[in-house]
Structure formats: structure tokens, C-alpha cells
User: Fold this.
Amino acid sequence: AQSVTQLGSHVSVSEGALVLLRCNYSSSVPPYLFWYVQYPNQGLQLLLKYTSAATLVKGINGFEAEFKKSETSFHLTKPSAHMSDAAEYFCAVSHANAGKSTFGDGTTLTVKP
Amino acid sequence: DAMVIQNPRYQVTQFGKPVTLSCSQTLNHNVMYWYQQKSSQAPKLLFHYYDKDFNNEADTPDNFQSRRPNTSFCFLDIRSPGLGDTAMYLCATSSFGQGDTEAFFGQGTRLTVV
Assistant:
């Protein structure tokens, strides 16, 4: 069985501030981990993925995440928030089959001017 | 450049009236998935096709069916939509067993049952 917990359903930051979105996973086998972004009435766009290679993963739009096995975490960060980063973010876990994922409940990121 | 295309983007249907949502892909991926995402919730996998093999999730209602006539197309049929089926429906594809490390999502179809 696999599961994902996203801590904080809503996160608000000021423009230019650090973004930190938290994700913890549970998996009985080495996981694939993903972060997706979703804008209103849009599909999911992949930000980055961990698939057992480098533990620090860099993605699009300046986002990165670090896989920490000892903490079963895969937190998403961005050094400086931009207004366009305001969206819903989902962390997801899968085993081998990337499309058969279990998603967290999502975190809504608000960026204040 | 669109790789996973869902039609229509918005669909309104009447309670109990069958509706079909469409998904096509230009990636030649062997696996296609349908997810349901209700308002402010996480996407939930309904079923997927591995080539022509249909795989239903245990808790997917019988009201939901799917067809995959060829590699490129996959349809979601809701036989008798209820108000609780109002949701965003997301189609995704992946290339399982061929170095699969990513799923590609379409833009979704927002279905409203009235």
C-alpha cells in the first residue's frame, strides 16, 4: 500500500519569499515521487519527479525537491515566490507505474504582492 | 504540440442521461488512465488500460465504463450520471515497461450533472 500526506492545505507567502510545501509518503517498496501543479480548470502539469536517481531533484519554474528516505519526505521548495506560482500543488507516489499514482489532498499556494 | 487531448473541455448533462468523454493521445503510449477529481479533492484513479487490457479500481462504481478502440483513443462512459458525478475528469498516459517514469495528463473535462 502507498499513501501521501501533504501538511497544510493552504500556504500563503509573499512575493519573493521562500516557498515550502510539505509532503510525506508511505510506501512498502522504493517509491516514485512526483509534484504536480494545477491551475483552475486545468489538468495536472508535472513539476518534477524522483525515480531513485539523485535525491535532490530540480524541476521547472525554479522548483526543486529533496527525497529524504529516513524522513519519508519529499518537500517542494522554491527560493523566491512569483505571483504566477499561485495554484494547487499535488504530491503523488507510485510504484514503477508512474500513471497509477496515489495523490495527496493538495496544497493551495497563495502569493501575496 | 498537444499530446493528450480531452474533449470536450466542459460538459453539462442531465441527471440520468448517458454521457461520453473522450481522450486522445499522440505519444503512442501503451497505458491510458482515467481519474476523477471532485472539487477541492485529490485526483482518484478510476481505471486504466494497459494496451487492450482493462484494469478497474476496486471502488470504481459500475456506472462508469471505459472503451479503448485503439492505441490513440480512450473513452469514459457514464451510463446514468448522478449529481455526485459532477467533477473534473482527467485522462493520462504513460509508457509502462519502456522506461516509464512519467505520466502525461490532458487538460481535463469538467462535467456538471444537473
